[in-house]
Amino acid sequence: MSDAIIAVSELTRRFGTKTALASVSVSFARGAVYGLVGANGAGKTTFIKHILGLLRAESGSVRVFGLDPVADPVGVLSRIGYLSEENDLPGWMRVEELIRYARAFYPQWDDAYASELLRQFELDATATIKTMSKGQRARLGLLTALSYRPELLLLDEPSSGLDPIVRRDILGAVIRTIADEGRTVLFSSHLLDEVEQVADHVTMIDAGRIVLSAPLKDIKDSHRVDGRTPTLDEIFVGRVGRSALSG
Amino acid sequence: MSSPGAALALSFSLRHRWGLVAIGVTLLAVAAVKVVTVFDRFPLDLDPQVSFAIVCTVPMSLVFFYLVAVLTFGLDGDLAARQSMYPARMFSWPVTSTALAWWPMAFGTVITGLLWTLTRQLAVWPPSIQVPVVWPGLLAVVLLAWAQALTWMPYGLRGVRVVIVSLWLVTIDTIVLLALYLNASEPVMAAVLVPQIPLAYLAGRYAVTRARCGDIPDWALGSRISALGLGPSAESREPRAGFASPLSAQTWFEWRRAGRSLPVWVALVIPFELLLFWAVGTSTKLLVEFLVIVFATPIILAAFTAATVSTSSLNATPGDGLPAFLATRPLTSADLIAAKLWQTIRSTLLAWLVVIVSVAIGLVWSGASAVVVERVGALAHAIGTPRVVALALLVLVGFVASTWKQQVQSLYIGLTGREWLIKGSVFVTLTFLLFFALFIEWIVDTDHVGQALSALPRILAVLAAIKMLAAVWIALRMYRSRLVRDSTLVIGAACWCATVVVLFGVFVWFFSTPMIPHYFLLLIAILATPLVRLSAALMALAWNRHR
Q1: CA-wise closest residue to A83 among A140, A130, A41
Q2: Scanning every residue of chain A, which has its alpha carbon at the shortest distance from the alpha carbon of B323?
Q3: How far apart are CA A50 and CA B546, in angstroms?
Q4: What are A's interface residues with B at a Cβ cutoff of 8 A?
Q5: What ipTM was predicted for this assembly?
Q6: Could you give the C-alpha distances from A171 to A161, A183, A190, B337, B445, in angstroms and in order?
Q7: B230: helix, strand or coil
Q8: Which residue from A2, A86, A179, B255 has the highest number of Cβ atoms inside 10 Å of its Cβ?
Q9: Cα separations in angstroms, B77 against B81, B88, B107, B166, B315
Q10: Contact yes or no for A104 and B547 at CB 8 A
């Protein structure tokens, strides 16, 4: 695939005796929303950490924008917006300090967009991060991940443990991002109904192996039974043998 | 699990099993020395002041400090934080706050009491020492109980815990030393110490009760002003200018995260030390001793703040890996290290500015400046003004450089983010120091001092060769892994060489005597200039960032 923004080939990773990723080969094209689904411990976060260069490929290769994220972290990370489930923002910072700090890393930072998101997410610029709720911290993380309009938005279980309003904000951000031409979203989750709402393409991962990777529409069409289209969760159960939610 | 005490004992023994093994080995080693020296009548000349310290005092003190760290839960969190260090996960246990507080305190009391009993029985005590029966054990129990209570107390300002715990424990220690100085009997010592135990237990219970309710006071001036509505509103604030570069933003981050600790600690401690100047009178010896104490303070404090510098974020403990927030900054690992180094330089310079200004004020106010002026004048007359100025600058630069070195020399361990490596390095270092001290003692006892001194140049040459080989290996690794640009490697090597040459030149100019060969001074300059550990910090960070 010539227009691949992420190209992973034969990627294997072990932690001790446990194989977290086993010969994973997949590529993601520019300008679409990819849902990465799997139960807890399936290897989603390990996969995303390889894309960010936080894990080094034991064997196989990872290329993002055609670059090796370990060898060229600046070239890769300056074009990625990342929000994780942990959302480990430094608790001692104020919101305005975090924005001032983050904008220094991205020449394309859009002040007007950041201000708009600040208002929309109802964040107090003078608040200290450690005093904010989990939902507010998730919104702040989203603000800093979106304000420089990254080419690739990586969301690793962003809505786990959050209330429906924050989850709506996150999905809204995904939709806004894809509205900008040429931008790509990789969205990992075990909440399959959310993925179903926004993803163009779904990659299912189980025990470190890709069990299915195809456009959502094709997946649904191919699993149609007696004229009824199954949900993504039903397809997942059929493929993996258990629900994504059950872990 | 039949009781909270049993649950706590299980969690302690599982979490600190290797530490408990190390304590067991230490006790066995102390006992083995007694078996060898007393029962086997091994002719080891035990000089009471040095050998006893090496064989017993140092290892048993280390064991005690380790127990303090474990039983206060000091290894589990941020000592400088405002919130209690008592693990929040235990607040949900279905037991009273009294049980939560008193079980670990009771463990502490029993274990430290037992430790003293074993030390008393197992150690080879010098014949000149009248071994006390109970008061050292009581002192250990009291110190631990107060350390637990004060560590678990929530405070209204960051860093206050460190100051209060230090001051309170030093005060107790001073009272005991004063009682010893006045030849207090064992019952008097016990009478001073025993009443403190229930007081510490009550303080511990109060601390845990407050912490369990989430009661954290706020003594910060800024938040009080905001609460009164006197501070500027978000809308009225002028937007601050942005950072000039990503590196300057990261340097600011590191400064806010860890940079202010050293200057603040120095500013808190130095005023108390300056009170010593009023005792100088006309004694040059006392003045020099007190100045050494004051000047050594930033170096000692830097050893403590270094732990914060080498961790990755305020929310992290030393064994944590690099948080994703930092690891995903679009900066090279070299820039992440550079930000830490710039921060430590700024922090060191500010701490020394505090020292210099404070010492100048202290000398003038106490009248001790007259002694300084007189001694400097005499020295200038003896060796010349340029050498006096050079000596003063050399000493000052030496102290400042040592402070900075203290802050950065453990980066290469802390930045790996591997708990086993961090704890293992502490164990290896302490073991090495213990055996090194025993080796030195053996050299002194067996009259090999002359041979050791004559072998010193060769020893230094071997160490310098090892250092240079290690530096070349690290440089090759960095070159191959493209961690730094080629030009950075060349510039770094050139700067290091220039520093060594300048230091060597100063040494040669100052110690122009045929007694000391120039190559010896060059070896010292090579060994004194940081290179290997500093370079290894970059590899450690990269190893942590790209696992």
Answers
A1: A140
A2: A88
A3: 9
A4: 52-56, 70-71, 73-74, 76-78, 80, 82, 84, 86, 88-93, 96, 100-101, 103-106, 124-126
A5: 0.87
A6: 15, 15, 14, 36, 76
A7: coil
A8: B255
A9: 8, 11, 20, 18, 9
A10: no
